[in-house]
Input
Amino acid sequence: MKLGLTRRILVICEKPTAAKRIAQALDDDGVPEEYRERGVPYHIARRGSVDLIVVSALGHLFVVAQDGGKWTYPIFNHAWVLGYEADKRLSRTRNFIEVIRKLSIGVDEYVSACDYDMEGSLIAYMVLLHVCGEESVGLARRMRYSTLTERDLVNAWSEMSDTLDFPFIEAGRSRHEVDWLFGINLSRALTLSVKNATGFFKVLSIGRVQGPTLNFIREREVKIRTFVPTPYWVLKAGTRVDGEKYPLEYERPSIDNKREALELVSACRKKHGVVKAVRKKRLEQLPFPAFNLGDLQREAFYKFRYSPRTTLRAAERLYLGALISYPRTSSQRLPPSIDLREILKGLRERKEYAKLVGVLLSKPRLSPRQGRKDDPAHPAIHPTGRLPGRMSRSEVRIFDLVCRRFMAALGDPAVRENVEANLGVNGHLFRLKGSTILEKGWMVYYEPYIREKTVALPPLNEGQLIPIIDVKAVQRFTKPPSRYNQGSLLKLMEDEGIGTKATRTEIIDTLFKRGYIEGSKIGITDLGFTVVDTLSRYIPEILSIEMTRELEWDLESIQAGRTTREAVIEKTVEGLKPILSEFKLNEELIGSEINEALRREARKSSFLGMCPSCETGEIRVITNKETGKRFAGCSNFFKDLCSVSYPLPQRGIIQATGKACSECGAPIIKVVRRRRRPWELCLSFDCPTKKRVGKDGG
Amino acid sequence: MEDRCRLCGLKRGSESEYCRYHQIAIKNLEVAHQDWNKAVGIGWLDFLKEVMEKKETGAWVKDVVTVLLSKERF
Output
């Protein structure tokens, strides 16, 4: 590393990819020197007479942890500690800390160039405070940018703030500390309740957002499981005009009584309808605003079935590639500071957008549709105009979705014409409805992702007689509410104001990881149900949306300068104390109830099917305590009644399918392994089906 | 196991032999029977048989219906 006697500035970034981009953008020649020490990359860029040492963290290098004391609860003493000391998974961060410490020696100034949000501000602050020294905090400034393009970064450099963004830092610190206080205390209380009641140790968790979210799922599940369908009838009819068939809608969407439905059928069958009135209405349909993170995650879920995490990861990679703006935003607005024409000119180079962009660029004025939601830190997600190189399938899809939505937001309103004709049939009213799109407007840009139904009606005149055909009463049954999916759960959390755009995805993931919820149509497991049901009876405050919402408000107030971190932490501790005392009082009851669910869950997950030999035992997964290897065996073995056992694959998750082999009767299992297609197989090693495969197909 | 729901083993109150969820299922069944009766004029037993066959019927409702039908049988 060659450094002259010039002024030196240490630029701290959030991730290595971002550091590289920032160094390239800020270097006068665009070619910074690249170094690597202990596997940690850093760059030296020259900007005028200044040497910039651009280095990155690896996300959070410091975490909140218990400050002394035993593994118990309540626990309120906490401190920020080195991440790698508190969590083995953060072991890679050790080298980053050492390298930053070394590079900070003799530095004149510091710049926080992490992503411009609460987390980014906090990452840089902690590095400055604990690695570069306390005095560095006062010498540090903050770059604010929404894209990693050269233009934005150079602009951010020249318009840097003179100090760090302390309101963001304080809000970020408080959020971590509040979440830690809730998480550690409630999770330990749960875990210890089971251990103290039964002696069985299993780590269980619940948090201030996890609890209410799981409770939403439980409430929905209760509605589904206690649902009783009731019958109703829908009157179906049609008409034929100029040889074409058209469906009719009866004035009442449903009829609750069978007799009445049948009477209506006989009153309208083989009759003619008189056209009473024909109404035409032209409607302007405005385009959707550009995406915020929640909108993008939901759209990607509905269009591609991507989980919120998959979408977020793809969007983050696109952001680090300077292809789209910062994705963790709540904003649905594109402010005037964004050069829309420049972005479009960039997109025009992409073959599939060239024609569409050409139309937009020919407009004298570009005014995007602005959504209601705003974010003071970042605009809505938009492309930067840079063209992508090789991308993964998910990146291609998310990039296209963002680009098309951006173009659509700049498009003209679509114009639709709705036609409705009222038909009088023997004293009853039917409606004939049609809808056509007169001008596609913005829909042209978003076409692959829109499903539009259009029905063009023939010309109809008042007093015209048209035949009523195919009249029938169709019996239907009411349906229970649908289970949440990841898209609708995310929306619910957003609407209820729990969690943040940055944490909601993680909360849903944690509920899956803990085994509380399962499936793409999210169902609650026995364990998840018992945890939340037990807590709802003994300590309902843990599941209260109001409490979580109030805390979110307090955390926002810190950012706005209305309150302090100390006040919010004190309020959290005071709020937790009675909850935890209540928990202690009911510990045994809570523990024994949850333990039952844990046992049921364990029994369920080890059950593979009924024994084909003794027909009374259950084939279960058993782990050999000496070798640690697993096999399947009959539960009657322990009663000396049956000795059937089967070998099992040692890797992957074994699931019961509920099916038995048609040849040998042994249970058929499903093996799920990472990055492999799940496969089903008969448990029996000697099954004739396997021999056949061996003989015929190898 | 006296203070347990006879259908699922969950804790129950002293006023019923079922847990609070199976009690909701029973209440919903009673309300739904009135709606069914208005719609098709159906007796309790036939109603239970119909409900048992419907895929929309909730799992806890089916638990209750199974018990009620077996009671009717004997």
User: Anything to note?
Assistant: Chain B touches chain A through 23 residues (CB under 8 Å).
